[in-house]
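Hello again, I could really use a second opinion on something today. I owe you a coffee for this, so here goes:
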Amino acid sequence: MGLGGGQRGSHVVDLLLGSDRPRRALDAGATPAEVLSGWTEDARAFRERCRPLLLYDGSCGR
């Protein structure tokens, strides 16, 4: 069991990141930079989705 203390096999980092994919990639030998580079498109899409809701320019995840 992971450090989560919850369900068998759960890991706190999985809960914090919303997925087990980053942890599994790191366990498989990926570097942190490689894991982060996979989030670039998701971050861009999030900025585009939230832009109409902003009160001030530049406050959406930059």
